[in-house]
Amino acid sequence: MVKGIKITTIGGGSSYTPELVEGFIKHYDELPVRELWLVDIEAGKEKLEIVGNLAKRMIEKAGLPIEVHLTLDRRAALENADFVTTQFRVGLLEARAKDERIPMKYGVLGQETNGPGGLFKGLRTIPVILDICKDMEELCPNAWLINFTNPAGMVTEAVLRYSNIKKVVGLCNVPIGMEMGIAKLLDVDHSRIKIDFAGLNHMVYGLDVYVDGESVKDKVIELLTDPNNTSFVKNVKGLGWEPSFIRSLNLLTCPYHNYYYKTKDMIEKDIKKAKEEGTRAEVVLKLEKELFELYKDPNLAIKPPQLEERGGAYYSEAAVRLITSIYTDKGDIQPVNTQNNGAIASIPNDSAVEVSCVITKEGPKPIVIGDLPIAVRGLVQQIKSFERIAAEAAVTGDYDTAVLALTINPLTPSDTIAREIVDEMLEAHKEHLPQFFPKKEAVK
Ligand code: G6P
């Protein structure tokens, strides 16, 4: 008998889980999942129960023989898994709110994956993912790790650099969101759109874009000069590009580029918004409460449309199409975070990049693009340096390395402000940063 596929989802109590379950249901013919293990920690127990029961109802309604297991025992969940997906948030949304609020006090961007917020989310997350990698080595050494936890680029970098897990893919919904957004702009079905992606996570560019294999880049660039057309994810509202800039750049930008090319305007907008309605984490906290109330309804057996108000739309599409292509050795092209291996000339071969890849049972094979255009090369390299130094700080718990990472980040105005922010954020996140606060040996 063919062994069914076992999927383990760490952070299974996340409000995103119904997305994933919907994907497994839709693609069951190609990807026959037999066991889905949703794992969470004690603090997430209640959410795990609620979302897990909804997952069970969704699967029952679809009439599929997928067993759903809910557990707090990560090791039991990992045993013999074929795919491990990670979508956890160390310190929950409350920690994200601090990542957003604290930098704002210094007039710096407060965002979960960019600038100080990205650094601190990385510092909290990397030790945990490396611990998961150690468990995987022992309990499911052949499994693929599909990481969705942010900052996804930095986390993939850390896994490649500091763990023995080689079968790792970092996944983000931004590229698929850009494809969907452009399909909508051009009023064509998403399946007809292809973009050549290159760059890093949340720092990815579209080098070209095609409909049915024919380049439509000029037309799309023209459409992107319209301020209403530049936002492809729910949580980052762009402000619109200067037409002369976007024409001469001649690349498709991702929503996160707003933070780098419109830094001052975006910070002012976010600070104003935080005063009026709260930071994104605070807004999402409210949204989550509503979502979980809906999830509790025993008559609900589908993914509620309200979930699409979260930034993670198309997550399931991206995750399930990736897992399916690895499982079926499909050889199609998808944008993911993987080891560069010469795909982008100016990035080290052993670093993580976000590029279009051919997906086979051996994993993603990046498509070689040569070098990035000179106008963006430096920024991409700078962010890569930031990610690498931040990952090093996460592993060593070294204070000076953390300050260095933040100082070289292009969103930081000065070395002193970097140090002040690091000091305040280390204190605020103390509980989730044990590597920076080693327990003192008891004095005899
Ligand atoms: C987008 C980004 C993700 C991010 C999400 C946040 O999808 O690609 O990296 O986690 O938005 O959404 P939220 O609704 O939590 O702000």
Provide key terms for this protein.
47% helix, 16 helices, binds 6-O-phosphono-alpha-D-glucopyranose, 444 residues, single chain, 12 strands, alpha/beta, 6-stranded antiparallel beta sheet, 6-stranded parallel beta sheet
Summarize the structure.
This protein has helices spanning 17-26, 45-62, 74-78, 92-105, 115-139, 152-162, 174-186, 217-224, 243-249, 258-261, 263-277, 280-296, 315-328, 374-396, 399-408, 415-428, and strands at 5-10, 33-39, 67-71, 83-86, 144-147, 168-170, 193-200, 203-211, 214-215, 332-339, 352-360, 363-366. The chain is an alpha/beta fold and 444 residues long.
Describe the protein's architecture and organization.
This protein has 444 residues and is of the alpha/beta class. The chain is 47% helix and 16% strand. It has 16 helices and twelve strands. The protein has helices spanning 17-26, 45-62, 74-78, 92-105, 115-139, 152-162, 174-186, 217-224, 243-249, 258-261, 263-277, 280-296, 315-328, 374-396, 399-408, 415-428, and strands at residues 5-10, 33-39, 67-71, 83-86, 144-147, 168-170, 193-200, 203-211, 214-215, 332-339, 352-360, 363-366. The strands form two sheets. The chain has a six-stranded parallel sheet with strand order 3-2-1-4-5-6, sandwiched between helices. Strands 7, 8, 9, 10, 11 and 12 form a six-stranded antiparallel sheet that branches. A hairpin with a 2-residue loop joins strand 8 and strand 9. The relative contact order is 0.14. The structure holds 6-O-phosphono-alpha-D-glucopyranose. 6-O-phosphono-alpha-D-glucopyranose is lined by residues 113, 150, 172-174, 233-235, 280, 284, 310-312. Residues 113, 150, 172-174, 233-235, 280, 284, 310-312 line the site of 6-O-phosphono-alpha-D-glucopyranose.
